[in-house]
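Need Arginine deiminase's 3D structure for a figure. Predict it.
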Amino acid sequence: MNNLYVGSEIGQLRRVLVHRPKRALTHLTPSNCHDLLFDDVLAVERAGEEHDVFTATLSEQNVEVLFLTDLLSETLQVSEAKDWLLSHQVSEYRLGQTFASDVRCYLRDLPNIELAKILTGGLSYAEMPVQSSSMMQGLHQPIDFILEPLPNHLFTRDTSCWVYGGVSINPMAKTARQRETNHLRAIYRWHPTFAQQGFIKYLGDKEIQYDNSTIEGGDVLVIGKGAVLIGMSERTTPQGVEHLASQLFKHSQAKQVIAMELPKHRSCMHLDTVMTHMREDTFSIYPEVMRSDIQCWKLTGDESGKVNVKQENSFVHAIEKALGIGQINLITTGGDNFNAEREQWNDANNVLTVKPGVVIGYQSNTYTNEKYDKAGITVLPIPGDELGRGRGGARCMSCPIERDGI
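Structure prediction for Arginine deiminase:
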């Protein structure tokens, strides 16, 4: 069980971390969904059923599926982990000394699985059965949150990402997602699957204020052969890229990082919403964004952690050189301009490769899936009418923790 290593985007996927949300989605309403980074409310049961098809498809491909709620619940069995999580997620700076103490006492006595569901799914004032002497309850409405739900935990790709022999526990850009990172910190530190494994933690395991150095896993593509492709998007900054690159070089885990500038808007929130790797020589791209003139840099370094930066003429040539391929094949989003924009918005480019040339994607993206099929890529279709409304596809909903290289 100690093969914590992700050597590529396309090698055989062996183990993956996912999150099947329920409680967080029941807390999602038209008045709060935008603050929680969702464009709409989801039909809770149907979203769960779609997620079940996704995980069943992974299992059929011989991928071991780990569930975040289970890992978190098992981590909470370790008393040190429970104390650490409660002190971080229910801090007195968040809720005031008296109320934080009362909320922690209430939560500490719950069964671990219930506590895990509240930590990921939120707790409203109406759901808090204990009366506190603090001012907080009297100053809030029943529908206000003591702990905001974390519906974006659905997208396990972003909170932490495994790159070769280590993991980056990511400093997240948006306040609505920052508490997610503590759950992964606790799991990787105390859960028996991870606790004694001796893997590298590049970022996020220390009490550091990362300030502007944010990074999210949807922007990080481990393309293999010692290369990592990172998009600088709405959520991932050049400072974050430089810090991760420095750690990769310091631990001799990567030879180069290729960094690309992306537009800073929601339709291409992360690199993997406009580009994914499907076979060693084949990528899916959304051409409106992945234009040949986007700025691109190559970062290299050594065990001193110093990073050298050199501007590249073209991201395509940079990838071809990194992978030692004469010419990469780019499959563009399908249909006319209207179809392509709609399918990109519905994550046609955000597919999860389970082995070379075999990907999981939303069945509704018919034009793009047809192009994949013609290019010899097998699409394993999953329903995404509800899940897709969170603006994430199969790659977003998966955090590989064990995958072969190329």
